[in-house]
Design a protein that fits this description.
Blueprint lengths: L2 H8 L2 H7 L2 H12 L3 H13 L7 H16 L3 E14 L3 E7 L3 E3 L1 E3 L11 E8 L2 H12 L3 E4 L6 H17 L4 E5 L25 E4 L1 H12 L5 E6 L2 E15 L4 E11 L9 H20 L6 E8 L7 H12 L3 E7 L7 E7 L9 H10 L8 E4 L7 H5 L4 E6 L4 H4 L12 H20 L2
Parallel strand pairs: 5-6, 6-7, 7-8, 11-12, 11-13, 13-16, 14-15
Antiparallel strand pairs: 1-10, 2-3, 2-9, 4-8, 5-9, 10-12, 14-16
Helix pairs in contact: 2-11, 3-14, 4-9, 6-7, 9-14, 11-14
The protein binds zinc ion.
């Protein structure tokens, strides 16, 4: 074989192809690292609109504002996709320890929970660390009690099971209410809310998260053989489904406008804090990535579509509505990218092919584009799970990307009053925008 053929064979074709985007990638990274537009938008969303639970006025304001911002960013075909969403309302709520000490507990009702009677539920507490411990105690020890799950944080997926299923498992043994240690690795006494699910077979009992400190306190008292009495009061309830909408805008592809790389985050949040990391940062980073691509005059072969999904937190109806709309409008998705893990320093992208399995060439392309993000150490491509709003697309076989960060503090703030704009580190957010922009543009333009 002639030496030059050997040399050519040694260079992967994808690397050669990705290299043609090096100039554009460097410009996008430079622009993102100097950009204030994204931070200004996120700051406005956080401070002027605030948190955005499905069914709330503030979510509807955020949706109208988002459509305006997409237009201001120069996106085309800006529109909303209407969808009905669940409307859970927290109402007033409180929990207090009555015995052996009198003290208020730092609590947040869990999303979907039912209310207590107006006078509250007052009962002794049975504290456990695991579902196994609860099962071993059995009905005789649990009947008529408030169950407290004091499960230390292992990882989100594992520990969140107590928040999701704890109430029904406790109700199954006759408990009258359930308290759950907040799902967080670190705590400054702030409770963390989030969705829970009732099993159809068991009675619906009210359920709330308490701060890590309070959970440990109560558990220590019961271990010492102390009788702990707690009064829980909650007004939580559902109102009729509310009007809401996804928001979308595009950079229309110059060659294949029906082929789409969809990027975005969810515009709804829990009803505490500002939804800054979760997921204002993800939605706004996607918008800013598209804004910078446009600003630099880059028009890819395929369409880049920015979508702000609604109702991710307690229903996922926005993701389902988007898929229905896209299918009805003949969209052929080549990739879906969602950022929903906070705006810490990005390291790369998780790649998810779902049940349909790996599609040839996609991983190689992503890895090659990842090389263009080496400058900011954000180009690592690994197998992983994508985010909730793109799951309906994933089920249809669309390769789904999740922007991944170091995730050092995300769960410290997640679903709590502490998820506010001051927790956003500007340089990290800008790198997220850069990673988003480079991956999106190169995927959309790939020959
Ligand atoms: Zn989220």
């Amino acid at each position: 074989m002639r030496p030059w053929i050997v040399l050519m064979a040694a260079i992967p074709a994808f690397a050669v192809t990705a290299d043609q985007y090096r100039g554009a990638a460097n410009k996008l990274i430079d622009a993102a690292m100097a950009d204030n537009g994204g931070l200004n938008r996120l700051e406005y969303l956080c401070y002027r609109i605030g948190n955005r639970l499905s069914g709330s006025q503030s979510l509807e304001r955020a949706i109208a504002w988002s459509a305006d911002e997409m237009k201001n960013a120069g996106l085309a075909n800006v529109r909303t996709i209407p969808v009905k969403v669940p409307h859970w309302v927290r109402g007033r709520e409180s929990a207090e320890m009555l015995e052996p000490l009198a003290k208020p507990l730092f609590m947040l009702g869990l999303g979907n929970s039912v209310a207590t009677p107006p006078e509250g539920i007052t009962a002794d507490v049975v504290a456990v660390s695991t579902f196994d411990e609860l099962a071993k105690l059995g009905r005789s020890a649990v009947q008529g009690k408030i169950v407290l799950y004091d499960a230390p944080f292992v990882n989100y997926d594992q520990t969140v099971e107590y928040r999701m299923e704890g109430a029904s498992r406790a109700a199954h043994l006759g408990a009258v209410a359930a308290l759950v240690r907040s799902v967080t690795p670190r705590s400054l006494r702030d409770p963390h809310t989030g969705m829970m699910r009732y099993a159809a077979a068991d009675r619906k009992i009210p359920t709330a998260a308490v701060s890590v400190e309070d959970a440990m306190w109560i558990h220590r008292l019961t271990r010492d053989g102390q009788r702990v009495r707690v009064r829980l009061k909650m007004e939580a309830h559902f109102e009729p489904d509310a009007d809401s909408a996804d928001v979308m805008g595009e950079i229309v592809g110059r060659e294949k406008p029906n082929e789409v790389v969809v990027i975005g985050g969810h515009i709804d949040s829990w009803d505490v804090g500002q939804g800054a990391h979760d997921d204002g940062s993800g939605a706004i980073a996607a918008l800013e990535a598209a804004a910078l691509i446009r600003k630099l005059g880059l028009q890819p072969r395929r369409t880049i579509r920015v979508v702000f999904w609604t109702n991710e937190e307690n229903g996922g109806r926005g993701g389902v509505a988007y898929r229905a709309w896209a299918n009805a409008h003949g969209t052929k998705h080549v990739a879906a990218i969602e950022m929903d893990g906070g705006a810490e320093k990005p390291i790369g992208f998780d790649l998810d092919f779902g049940k349909r399995g790996e599609q040839p060439g996609v991983r190689e392309r992503a890895v090659a584009i990842g090389q263009l993000l080496k400058r900011i150490n954000a180009g690592k491509i690994q197998s992983g799970e994508s985010e909730a709003d793109v799951e309906p697309l994933l089920a249809d076989g669309v390769p789904a990307f999740g922007l991944r960060t170091v995730m050092a503090h995300y769960f410290d703030y997640h679903h709590s009053e502490a998820d506010t704009f001051d927790k956003i580190v500007p340089a990290d957010f800008r790198q997220c925008v850069a990673a988003y922009a480079v991956m999106t543009y190169a995927l959309a333009d790939w020959p």
